[in-house]
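Its record is retained below.
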Amino acid sequence: MAIVKMKRLRLFGMRSDREDILRVLQHAGCVEVSETADKLEDPEWAGVSRPDGQALTAAREAGASALSALEVLKKYAPVKGGLLKSRPVISEKEFFDDGAYAAALKTAEEVNDAERRIHALYAEQSKLRGQKLTLAPWLDLDVPLDTASTKEMAVVLGTVPNTVKLEELQGGLDAATDLQELTHVSSDTEAHYLLLVFHRDAEEAVNEVLKEYAFTRAGLRGWTGTAKENDRRLDAEISALAAETEAVKEGLSKRGGEHLVLQRCADRAAQEISREEAKGRLLDTQSVFFLEGWMPAKEVKGLEECLKPYLCAWETEDPAQEEYPTVPVQLENNSLTRPMSMVTDMYSLPAYGSLDPNPLMAPFFILFYGIMMADMGYGLVMMLISALVIKKTKPKGPTVRHMFPLLGLCGVSTFIMGALTGGFFGDFLPQLAHIINPNTTFTALPALFSPLDDALVVLMGALALGVVQIFTGMGISMYKKIKRGETMDALCNEGAWYLVFLLAGGGIALGMVGPGLIASLIVLVITQSYGKKGIVGKIMGIFGSLYNGITGYFSDIMSYSRLMALMLAGAVVAQVFNQLGAITGNVVAFVIIAMIGNALNFALNILGCFVHDMRLQCLEFFGRFYEDGGVPFRPLNITTKFVDVEEK
């Protein structure tokens, strides 16, 4: 239960073995390949270069194609999936079968081509519908749209604004010349659609009138036949395109069985991307390549066995102290403390070379959560959800693989605290018994204490637990300082406050408050001036420590009152909903109302308790000793999203 010791790895290998060695490292999953950009600028490394990135581009395109095809099938051939459906398990040999991968990529391309064809068909239909809208005003015109003007006569189709009075337009044309004929085809809210035929001799006079009335020639070039004939043709083409669209959709709907193939393909492409990205951090010459990275010290022997078949030279070494900020961090915990990684991951990983907080935090986090939730019914639900999800889905994501085990552990604590407080969905059982038999003597479950009746006791207990956790954090800080050789600093800070609390508490317990406080002040005067220069500095140090220490410790300890507050709030809300249900006097109505209310209370508290519990750990506990800023260890390995690979 600690931070895993890391080794820096440097490896030179034959370039011809590069791909195989990278595959071996990916299978082993124990090496994080580091960036080597700094060596490209080093004169001693002249002649090296980056590997070609074309394979990475191809892998990313393959991955995008597979994911896109999955989205297409999700739309046209959805597969019903259960809420707790586990991921398929396949062998590593099957997963890395190149033939199956190539076939899956071909399937993905076919599915994507079909989707592109559907989009193209939709676009063509939209285009034709737009043409129909263009023709709509001219459907009553029996004259072919391609009727051409002659040397003597001009045939013009056009529009004028709807505000123009056609009688005035006709009058203007008649006044200009008799060698014209205006035909009104149709009108809408924007324009009048007109056919105008006139003799070429009157063209200038006609154009003057048309200009006055904002006449615009219609853009109907390229059409042959009447508007109705073209409209019927467009309808036939749209129908044909719609039929083709449905046929392509139907073809996609029959490919629902290829979901798993494409999922494997997407996961396989992800492995190719991961490996190619790692390859992009290597350095090459014409015959050899160089790899630099980090690996757990315990994996060195295993790596040696993996690399035996290859002609390569490699070494490992411990990181220097100045390298610690860049050394990746991996935590090694047992089944009880491992779920705590969810908290440390959300906060920040510990710095390399410091302490793993998970074993230190686990008892407090789990206990505090149970105190705040404190209900047997809620605890049973949490344990049941945790067990079902872990058994059915085997979660492996970066967060959920810790979330549900943590939920189960907190459920156990919640159940125990609920047993101590007599809570089972609040007072659900006594209320139910009273509805069934109003004369029942069953008014409450057996309890060691009640959050409603013994609120002060609960508050004192919460503050006492806060003191225990804060003292634990102070003890860890003292241990770290003494280990670094800072013994006097540890004794004059945490050690002095330990003694102050002991003297003050002992004085209060023995009825000697005055002597206890005087002794505490003497201790602070002696210790808090340590390391300060000059009389003024020592005096400021004493008063500053008094103010900051007293107010700081007081406020930190009072923060733990939230344990009592959330326990009390959860119990009250549950009882309120139970009483609302009991008012009906009907068992069925009571159960429905009580369960709905308790479900809301449960949903609110399961998140609220986590947030407040995490706050206590991150602010009050971690603030005493925790060194954050660790860089997560991200080895080149087999990481999948849709399927589980059974390694052999």
